[in-house]
Write a structure and sequence with these properties.
Length: 227
C-alpha cells in the first residue's frame, strides 16, 4: 500500500479525539505523521496525549513541530516572562494532568516537547505551526512568524510555490480554513463545538473527531475551500 503523509492539527490535550483519529486512520509503519504544534495545554489530558505520541513513534514516522504553547511552557518553567501568565492560557489544565505539580512532568515528556522542530519542509509542502511570512524563504522566518503569527485568510501563497499546512489560528466553527496556498487545521479541539482535524495528503481527505467521543467522518478537503 502507498505510504501516506498525514498532518494533524492542534491537539491541545484532547486525548479522546486523538485516539479516535488514530484508530480511524489505521496508521502503517511507512506513514509519516506531522503534528503541527500545540500538543499541550487547554484540554484535559496533555500527559495522555504525549504518552500516545511517544508510543506512536514505534508505529510510524512521527514529526512534531514546536507550537507557541510549547514555547510558553518551556519559557515558564525556566522562570521566563511567561511564568505568571502561562497558567491562564491552558497551563493549569496541563499541570493538572500531571497531578498538579509541574515538577512531576517526566523527563521523557520534557524531552519530547523540547525536540519539536521549527518547521518541516518536504519536496512539495511546508508544515509550520503558525502563519509564516509568505514573502520570505524558510531560512529567513522568525520564531514569531513560525509560532505566533495568525492567518487572516487573505495571505498570498508562499514565495516557494509550496502550499503551507499549519495550525494556531483557531477555527471555532470546527471547519478547517483552506484557501489558495494555505491549509489551517486548528479546529479548536478543546472547545464544545470544536474537533481535532487530520489531513491525508495523498487523497486530500480530512478526518475529524471530538473530545466528546464522536468520529465526525471523512470529508474531501475541497469542501472547505474558500476561493
Amino acid at each position: 500500500m502507498t505510504a501516506r503523509t498525514i498532518a494533524i492539527g492542534d491537539i491541545h490535550g484532547c486525548d479522546v479525539a486523538l485516539d479516535i483519529l488514530l484508530e480511524e486512520l489505521a496508521l502503517r509503519q511507512d506513514d509519516t505523521v506531522i503534528i503541527v504544534g500545540d500538543v499541550i495545554d487547554r484540554g484535559p489530558n496533555t500527559r495522555g496525549c504525549i504518552d500516545r505520541l511517544i508510543e506512536l513513534r514505534k508505529q510510524c514516522r512521527l514529526i512534531h513541530l514546536m507550537g507557541n504553547h510549547e514555547e510558553m511552557f518551556l519559557d515558564a518553567i525556566s522562570g521566563g516572562e511567561w511564568a505568571d501568565a502561562w497558567p491562564q492560557y491552558g497551563g493549569r489544565e496541563m499541570v493538572a494532568s500531571y497531578g498538579g505539580r509541574v515538577d512531576d512532568v517526566p523527563a521523557e515528556h520534557l524531552d519530547f516537547i523540547k525536540s519539536g522542530k521549527d518547521f518541516y519542509e518536504s519536496d512539495g509542502i511546508i508544515f509550520a505551526h503558525a502563519a509564516i511570512n509568505p514573502a520570505w524563504p524558510m531560512d529567513r522566518q522568525t520564531a514569531h512568524y513560525l509560532r505566533w503569527n495568525r492567518l487572516t485568510g487573505k495571505e498570498a501563497p508562499h514565495v516557494s510555490g509550496k502550499p503551507i499546512i499549519c495550525g494556531h489560528t483557531a477555527q471555532r466553527d470546527s471547519r478547517p480554513l483552506i484557501f489558495p496556498g494555505w491549509v489551517c487545521l486548528d479546529t479548536c479541539a478543546y472547545s464544545l463545538r470544536g474537533a481535532l482535524s487530520a489531513l491525508v495528503l495523498e487523497d486530500q481527505n480530512i478526518y475529524q473527531a471530538t473530545q466528546w467521543g464522536k468520529f465526525c467522518g471523512v470529508v474531501p478537503a475541497a469542501e472547505f475551500l474558500v476561493v
